[in-house]
Amino acid sequence: MKNLLLCFFAVFLTFAKADAQVIVNDFDTIKLYTLVNDKGMTVKITNYGAIITSMIVPDRDGKMGDVVLGYDRVEDYINAVDKPYFGAVVGRYGNRIAKGQFTLDGETYKLAVNNNENHLHGGVIGFDKVVWDANPIDSDQFKGLELSYLAKDMEEGYPGNLQLKVTYKLDQKSNTLTVDYAATTDKATPVNVTQHSYFNLKGEGEDTILDHELMINAKKYTPVDSGLIPTGETPSVQGTPFDFSVSKPIGRDVAMKKQQLEFGLGYDHNFVLDKPYGEMGLAARVFEPTTGRVLEITTTEPGVQFYCGNFLDGRLKGKSGKSYVHRGGFCLETQHYPDSPNQPNFPSTIVTPDKAYQSTTVFAFSTQK
Known about the structure:
By secondary structure, the chain is mainly beta. It is built from two helices and 27 strands. The protein is 3% helix and 37% strand. The longest helix has 6 residues. Belongs to the aldose epimerase family.
C-alpha cells in the first residue's frame, strides 16, 4: 500500500486539478471519519497519516470553533511546503535522530537524513504519509476510530516488522479525546510515536498563539545543539525562558536573546515531565483568554515537545482560507526524548518481541471565565 501512496485521493475531497502534483488513480482508499459526542464536540480523522483534520469545541459562550490547523483536501497535506505534519501521527520515531543513524545490538542502522543532517519524524515516508486501515468503533462511553498499519522490516531503515494500532476515542459525556497507541515487533527496534496537531484555541487561522497562557508540568528540559539534537543534559528550567512551571503567555519570553531560543527559532524543545515514569499524569495546560477555551493534556509519556509554530510564515492557507501566520499554532507532542537511541542516559525507546509498546495521551477541553 505504501508504494501506492501518492496515487491515492480522498473520496470526500474535491477532484485534483490537471496541474496538481498528485496523480489520481483511486477514490476509495482514503476516507474521512467524523466523531461527534453528546456535547457537540466534533473530531474529523482521515486514514491518510492518521491525521486529525478538524477538532470543533465550544468557547465560554458556547460558540463552536475549529481549534486545529489543517486542510479540507488530502492533496494539500501531501503537497504542503515545509511539510508541517498538521494533525498527523508521526513515527516510527517522532522527533529527531542525530545524523540519521543509531546502533542497536551491535548493528548500525542508517536512516533517511531529511532535516538538515538529521532524521526527523520517521523519514521520507513516515507514518504521516501512509494509508492506514481504519475500523470505526462505538460504545455507550465513546465514539472511536481504530487505525492500524504494518511498518515492514527495514522500512525507512528501521529494523523489525512493526504492527502499530492507534485508537482515537471521543468521550460521549465530556469534551475529551483519548489517543491510545499499541505496537508489537518481531525484532528489536526504536519506537516513539506521537500526535502532531497544531492548536490555536482562538480558532484555526485566527492570529497568533502568543497570548495563550501555557503551563508545562516540568522542572527540567533537554537543551539542544544548533541542529536541535539534545546535548544529553537535563538542567532546571528555573530562571530560564523555558520555565512554564507557572502559567505564562507563550509570547512573554520567546523573543529573548538566548542561545537555546536562537537554535530553535523560538520554542522547539522537549520538556522532562514531572511525574512517575510510565504513569498517566499531567503534561500541560493551555488557556486562551479571549475565548475562555482550556486544553489540558495528560499522558503516560515521560516528555512533551513544545513547538510554537516557528516555521509557519503565511504561505500555507488552511481549510477556512486564512493564512497560517508565524506562530499561528502550537504543538504539544507527548513522547520520549529526541535522539534517545543515541542517548544512553535517556529513557529507552527500544521495543522488543517480548516487550510490546503502549502509550496513552488525553486531550481534554473545557472553558473558564
